[in-house]
């Protein structure tokens, strides 16, 4: 789904964390057809948190999005987020996710993409100083466009982030730090994931 975004100036980094199925062959077949795809192979299993961080370190773009491999992004979400990030210099842009068992109507996503964003510039401050605003934040990483330099700053605040084998709540941990080190944040009330 990332390959078919309306916004084409992207780098797609795939991390093989010592998979034991046929997924590496599938990635290599896509890689042969699309020069935007980079494949990084871990020599030993490192888990989601470390593998994601390796991809972030090797990325070259100004912004990052880290979707899960089995999910779908709406076709316009990267374009919308990128243009807003560039125009207003946002560090983090969060958008809504649809989670459910019903099949998602992609036409409805496109309609939702026309909604106006809600700007919450004080949200990161409120998060860490005891406000109820914390309830407005989700702690998933996959529904955000994040400046690479902010993500790297967050990772650098963790000692040994390439050796931390975390198997639970890794999104929550990095989100707390991302909100803390970012200067600007916006929530788009649109379904993009």
Properties at a glance:
alpha/beta, 193 residues
Describe this structure in words.
The chain is α/β, with parallel strands linked by helices. It has seven helices and seven strands; from the N terminus they run βαβαβαβαβαβααβ. A five-stranded mixed beta sheet has the order 3-6-4-7-5. The chain has a two-stranded parallel ribbon with strand order 1-2. Helix 6 (148-156) crosses helix 7 (170-181). The longest helix has 12 residues, at 47-58. It is globular, with a radius of gyration of 17 Å. The model is unreliable at 112-136 (pLDDT under 50).
Topology:
Blueprint: E1 12-16, H1 23-33, E2 37-41, H2 47-58, E3 63-64, H3 77-88, E4 92-96, H4 106-112, E5 118-119, H5 123-128, E6 144-147, H6 148-156, H7 170-181, E7 185-191
Parallel strand pairs: 1-2, 4-7
Antiparallel strand pairs: 3-6, 4-6, 5-7
pLDDT average, as an integer? 78
Q: Identify the quaternary structure here.
A: single chain
- Determine the structural class based on helices, strands and strand pairing: alpha/beta
Characterize the main sheet: 5 strands, mixed
Radius of gyration: 17 Å
Strand order of the largest sheet: 3-6-4-7-5
Shape: globular
Q: Share of helix among residues?
A: 25-40%
